[in-house]
Amino acid sequence: MTISANTEHEALSALDARRSIPAKQLGAPGPDDATLLRMLRSASRVPDHGKRVPFRFLRIAGEDRDALGERLAARSRERDPDIGEGALDKDRRRFSHAPLVIVVVAVLDPADAKIPEVERLLTAGSVCFALLQAAQALGFGASWLTGWPAYDAESLALLGLGPNERVAGFIHIGTPRIDAPERDRPDPAALLSDWHAP
Q: Taking a C-beta distance cutoff of 8 angstroms, is the pair 156, 165 a contact?
């Protein structure tokens, strides 16, 4: 199969146009069920050594966003009894801004020693990026976040994750309330070097 080079290719333009929208700037409406499944279908087409499918999705929507926030605020106070009200409120509202949050869960079965764990984790991370692209392609804004709940054992248990699962990312999805902000991007020429045989 021959692939011709085309620097103005539509797919490259879509990659170049990717922007994160801050979660606080994502409002309703979010994607309906059919649209979400379409996004997830595209997001699942990632490199996957050994075809292990080392990821799954968890949807947080509706009133459950606020309920989770209350539980996280309580957990935050357990972690730090001296936490300030501002930080506590941030945790309480962590999942309340965007109408939909998809948790991309990395499934890392330790019995699967044939495929290194890091490769399976990278597959789950690729799903996060692909989901950002899919959301934007369908006219939504999205943001990939983690934060302390992604690394706190009790928070992971609250989300129903098993002992061999991790949060690869909380993907907040909704309708942008602002134009997507741009930021400085790295110069690939400055990052590229050549290896030569010694």
A: yes
